[in-house]
Structures are given as C-alpha cells and as structure tokens.
Amino acid sequence: MLTITRKMEFDAGHRIPDHNSQCRNLHGHRYTLLITLTGDVVQKDGASDNGMVMDFGDIKALAKAHLVDLWDHAFIVHEKDTAVRAFLDSMPGHKTVVIDRVPTVENLAQAAFDILKDVYHDRFGRHLSLTKVTLYETPNCWAEVDG
Ligand SMILES: Nc1nc2c(c(=O)[nH]1)N=C([C@H](O)[C@H](O)COP(=O)(O)OP(=O)(O)OP(=O)(O)O)CN2
Ligand SMILES: [Zn+2]
C-alpha cells in the first residue's frame, strides 16, 4: 500500500491528574503529529497535484484548520480536572481545550484521529483516507492509531 505522511508540530500544556509522579504537575510538550494518508495517485496532466495522493500543503492546511491551530499553545485539560479548569477559567481569554478523557498521549492521538479521519475522507471527491496518526509527546514517547 502506498502511503504519504505529513509531519506537523505544536506546543501544548497538560497534566495527568492521577499520575503518581511528575506528570501530575502542570507542564507542556512540543508535540509532533504525523498524519498518514492513502489514496489514489492523481493522474491528470497539467493538474497541480498530478502524481500526488494529496498535496502536502493541503494536508497541512486542513490539519491546521481542524486541529493544530486549536491545540497549539492551548492547555489541554480533562473535563473532570475541576481544580485546573477553575484556574484556567479565572484567566480571561485563556486558550483552553477541554476534552472528555485524561490527556495522555494515547488519548490525544485517538482524539486527533477521530477529528482528522472525517477531514480527509474522500476529500476533493477522491478516494482518500486517513490510515494512521502518530503523536509524539516527547522524542522518546509516542502513540499510534491505525485506522
Ligand atoms: N503511557 C503513557 N505514559 C506516560 C504519559 C502518557 O501520556 N502515556 N505521559 C507522561 C508525561 O506526561 C510525559 O509526557 C512523559 O514524561 P517522561 O516519561 O519524563 O518522558 P521523557 O521522554 O521526558 O522521559 P526521559 O526519561 O527523559 O526520556 C508520563 N507517562
Ligand atoms: Zn506530559
């Protein structure tokens, strides 16, 4: 199977409230997101995307609009983390993303996959699908979701 992958990076804060070590503290990461797509290679002489599954620029623009710009420089907090939510709410205009699960890299990768799969599915009327999302929380720790 032919796949293509676009890498993007964003910064976000989080904490894992019940963690028995450092990760219960407020902290942040520079996340690396890998978006892997499969689909038919465009065969259209003269088309800008001739020979491509999807233009990497279009993959980036869609990821930014639907995910990356929403999470970048946000604090991602579990809806049940009431202490931190109250603190964040006390700062007018703070960029906060409330999610329905603990913001581990596993859960963030799954949330990213769930958002992006519909964004890319058969985009531009072409056979196209999201096959994998990989999210690095640190250079040493990551999660992968296969579609
Ligand atoms: N399975 C998971 N384990 C941990 C997660 C997670 O999301 N899923 N998250 C954390 C921390 O939030 C942090 O992201 C990882 O910290 P750490 O283990 O310190 O990672 P480093 O790459 O910095 O570790 P080094 O030992 O310095 O290589 C913890 N666990
Ligand atoms: Zn962390």
From TrEMBL:
The keyword Metal-binding applies. Its EC number is 4.1.2.50. It is an enzyme of class 4 (lyase). Pathway: Purine metabolism; 7-cyano-7-deazaguanine biosynthesis. Keywords: Lyase, Metal-binding, Zinc. One of its GO terms (molecular function) is metal ion binding. Its cofactor is Zn(2+). It catalyses: 7,8-dihydroneopterin 3'-triphosphate + H2O = 6-carboxy-5,6,7,8-tetrahydropterin + triphosphate + acetaldehyde + 2 H(+). PANTHER family: 6-PYRUVOYL TETRAHYDROBIOPTERIN SYNTHASE (PTHR12589:SF7), PYRUVOYL TETRAHYDROBIOPTERIN SYNTHASE (PTHR12589). Belongs to the PTPS family. QueD subfamily. This is 6-carboxy-5,6,7,8-tetrahydropterin synthase. The gene is queD.
